[in-house]
Input
Amino acid sequence: MASHERIHSSDKPFECRFCEKTFKWIENLRVHHRSHTNERPFECAICSKRFTSSSTLKRHTRVHTGERPYQCRLCPSAFTQSSTLKKHLRTHSGGTPFDCDLCGKEFTHSSSMLRHKRRIHAHQTFCKKQFKWIASLRVHYRVHTNERPFECAICSKRFSQSGHLKKHTRIHTGEIPYQCRFCPSSFTQSKDLKDHLKSHTGETPFDCDMCGKQFTRSSSMLRHKKIHAPATSQ
Output
């Protein structure tokens, strides 16, 4: 009765005398002990390779017999281990449970994610810019890696952020969602509407540091400053 109740509890009464790791069942502790003692009592009858547990020997034997008992229900693929089948099923479901904590890229297998981190991030020294949210940091990383995971379905142009793709798509759809409340003008981006509103309010926050002339837009001010640039010799 007591051993059955342990199935439903988090109690792990069996402790390893070498590393203090604890186990729910005495048999699991015995198998674990062999990782410290290097005892390998289970031998393959074909190649004599030895193993710490009978289940590991059983999996190994399939290398020789060719047995693949774990069959994918969605395609003809079959596997020697249930864990490999579980990973394979993600290729059908689109599941990507392993994401890089540095750039957010997602992977179906943990091994693929670790390879990515070694190859892409191991020796990277980017800038020291800091962010409050991990999502913002991941988006920022793309400035350095030039990763552009968001692709336009119409022209295949790629973008680093979903918001940039959304704004770009309006070029194709003709959508102009930002309407001026003072006149019929409308714009594809909120910042363009904000700049336009200054033409109604008379606000001129951008001034030339050379002559003091003021402008409603920074782009207009920068174009104006070219007047002050020294003429290039012919």
